[in-house]
Write a structure and sequence with these properties.
By secondary structure, this protein is an alpha+beta fold. Helices cover 23% and strands 41% of the residues. The strands form two sheets. It has a seven-stranded antiparallel beta sheet with strand order 3-9-8-7-6-5-4. It has a two-stranded antiparallel ribbon with strand order 1-2. Strand 8 and strand 9 (124-132) form a beta hairpin.
Length: 162
């Protein structure tokens, strides 16, 4: 769905209809408990083993202050360039849910919102990732590719560490 065909939503308090910003939702069943999946998102050493498009050697920084109001900074190199993402944790429910703001150092004015949910599902965990309030459709498409690749790596990491 293109940004132009997104449904309209009322702007808060304005009574004016505004175009909804693009978002994405990805779901992935993982062969791991919600506690193990949550730890993979909140332990910098574990995060470095699956995050981003490259290898663990490409991870340059993973600073995670996992508490409401705490900040994170993740930096990695890819294709010869450094990429840094920042944000602030808005909701932290151990082994269940993380909600955090998200912006790239290169475009700090483009703040979006990420929600990660971990729910028990049979012998594993259903992870749901929702990334909302993208600047435009191109940003949504790029993040869809990035998150899909990272979740593939998370799935492989969970299988190796089982």
């Amino acid at each position: 769905m293109s940004a132009q065909s997104q449904p309209l939503a009322a702007s808060a308090g304005s009574g004016v209809l505004a175009e909804a910003k693009p978002s994405l939702t990805l779901r992935r069943w993982l062969n791991a408990s919600p506690a193990r999946v949550y730890a993979a998102w909140t332990d910098p050493q574990k995060l470095a083993k699956w995050w981003g498009p490259g290898t663990p050697d490409d991870m340059l920084v993973a600073d995670l202050d996992v508490r409401v109001g705490g900040d994170f900074h993740i930096g990695f190199s890819y294709a010869g360039e450094r990429h840094d993402v920042h944000g602030t944790y808005q909701e932290v429910v151990p082994d269940e849910k993380l909600v955090f703001s998200w912006f790239w150092k290169s475009t700090p004015e483009r703040v979006s919102l990420v929600t990660v949910r971990c729910r028990p599902d049979g012998d594993g965990c259903m992870l749901t990732l929702i990334h909302e309030q993208f600047f435009d459709e191109a940003a949504r498409l790029g993040h869809t590719r990035g998150w899909t690749a990272s979740l593939n790596k998370l799935e492989a990491y969970m299988a190796r560490e089982a």
